[in-house]
């Protein structure tokens, strides 16, 4: 009888825990997804660290053999280090040591109110990150806004960049033909519009998840708007910088990118004679994440030769 009572108590406790977990997931699904990602990273050998870079706290992830050639990947507007996980997986298998920092203002890095969040200032933070990590020369990659940042690092500090990789990258000055305020959506309808820009045939986002995404969007909107306002001035355009690059350059583009169309990649290629443009059909602006398995062989081959 006593053992039966204990069993009933344990079952009741499990039910309560399950109900609480379910309520937590419904209230904060994005947080739950993030925690699952962090747990998966932990068991997958991804290291998480925080360092002080030029007076600001910067979080970064690193994975791969300590003896491997260093690859630093810079995420885009509104992004974070974890965005690179699908591609980093293949680079690690190729023997590379992969560093993915959270830019100042994003992910788990500090979000100082006095920082400009302009491309050129983020670029200097990346250089300072290399200094702190003792990385004298790296293979550098940037995605979207991160590509613009990577171009500024390569242009102003060419001795630090062995090879440069630009994924669906900003840089050339051209005013967007879509509403940049969609990067800080305020309604489910705007979130759907943003998803349609970011990827072909986007999945329908359940309402409770959409509401949590919008909550997060409200909290970080000031950083993203400060960054987009700066980019829209054209002050960090790289039209004149690109022809000066001397290192090998790989341009990777999703053929269906509606944020930064393929025509921009083609213009970049025309400005950098030693560059190579690799286009992936069926992929959109999120190609480095959603099409990583197709992109990875091209990237690994570029880094090895």
Keywords:
alpha/beta, 46% helix, 8 strands, Rossmann fold, single chain, eight-stranded mixed sheet, 10 helices, 305 residues, 16% strand, 2 domains
- Average pLDDT score: 92
Largest pleated sheet: 8 strands, mixed
CATH class of the largest domain: Alpha Beta
Give the N-to-C terminal Cα separation: 72 Å
- List low-confidence stretches: 5-23
Total individual domains:
2
The helix content, as a percent range, equals: 40-55%
Count of helices?
A: 10
CA-atom Rg in angstroms: 21 Å
Proportion of residues in β-strands: 15-25%
CATH superfamily of the largest domain: Alpha/Beta hydrolase fold, catalytic domain
SSE order, one letter for each helix or strand = HHEEEHEHEHEHHEHEHH
The CATH architecture name of the largest domain reads: 3-Layer(aba) Sandwich
What does the overall shape look like? globular
In order across it, which strands form the biggest sheet? 1-2-4-3-5-6-7-8
CATH topology (fold) name of the largest domain: Rossmann fold
Structural class: alpha/beta
Structure notes:
- This protein is α/β, with parallel strands linked by helices.
- The protein folds into two domains: 1-43; 47-304, Alpha/Beta hydrolase fold, catalytic domain (Rossmann fold).
- Helices cover 46% and strands 16% of the residues.
- The chain contains ten helices and eight strands.
- The chain has helices spanning 2-27, 29-43, 85-93, 119-133, 145-156, 188-198, 207-232, 262-271, 287-290, 292-304, and strands at residues 47-53, 56-63, 70-74, 97-101, 138-143, 161-167, 249-254, 275-280.
- An eight-stranded mixed sheet has the order 1-2-4-3-5-6-7-8, sandwiched between helices.
- A hairpin with a 2-residue loop joins strand 1 and strand 2 (56-63).
- The N and C termini lie far apart (72 Å).
